[in-house]
Design a protein that fits this description.
38% of the residues are buried. This protein is mainly alpha-helical. Helices cover 78% and strands 0% of the residues. The radius of gyration is 18 Å and the shape is globular. The protein has six helices and no strands.
Length: 198
């Protein structure tokens, strides 16, 4: 059986930790947005390469550590998280959003924490032990992310921002919300794999 899958999932999750760290830099009004966007694109590209490597290995491996469809789903789910984070950075840059509401920091913190605990959970796929705390915590963080998202929307529609700025910021925070949701999908996939393998 090919154990390289576990290492590739670990690598994929480490890309998300890196991506969430770069993402956090958009909160700084003095950040070089072009540089942040470039580094985020590079991180997203590395994540894509890992996803392609997993897919290629599935196609060339006779016996996989768990169901092929689940391997594809997990690889794709991790990649989706990175895509949404990269989109948030890209939109902030393209829309020339000078300053995001301070409340956006809560969303970013949720994403950073999700990335960290996902990276911590990946080595446990090998034994399928002590994983339940992972999906329980991701679910808790996703609920916190939802609450934060609703609070930001309420703020945006409070009349404090002009209409064009509302549209720009709303797109960015929706990308962040999609990234949080994608983490929950990853947790659900791991829970399903655990149920089948245990």
């Amino acid at each position: 059986m090919d154990n390289a899958f576990y290492e590739l999932f670990q690598t994929s999750a480490s890309h998300l930790v890196e991506g969430a760290g770069i993402l956090a830099e958009i909160l700084d009004v003095d950040a070089d947005r072009e540089d942040v966007a470039r580094r985020m694109r590079d991180a997203e590209h590395r994540c894509d390469e890992t996803t392609h490597e997993i897919a290629k290995r599935v196609n060339n491996t006779f016996v996989t550590p768990f169901d092929r469809e689940d391997i594809y789903s997990l690889a794709s789910g991790l990649d989706d998280v990175m895509d949404h984070m990269e989109e948030a950075v890209d939109l902030t840059n393209l829309y020339e959003v000078r300053a995001l509401p301070v409340e956006v920091a809560e969303q970013v913190e949720v994403l950073q924490r999700c990335a960290e605990i996902t990276a911590e959970a990946m080595p446990r796929l090998r034994s399928m032990k002590d994983l339940s705390e992972f999906w329980i915590e991701i679910n808790r963080l996703e609920n916190a992310g939802d609450k934060s998202f609703r609070n930001i929307l309420a703020l945006l529609f409070s009349g404090k921002y002009d209409a064009l700025e509302v549209l720009k910021i709303k797109d960015v925070v929706e990308s962040l919300e999609s990234a949080v949701d994608a983490f929950e999908r990853v947790a659900n996939i791991i829970e399903q794999i655990h149920a089948k393998e245990s």
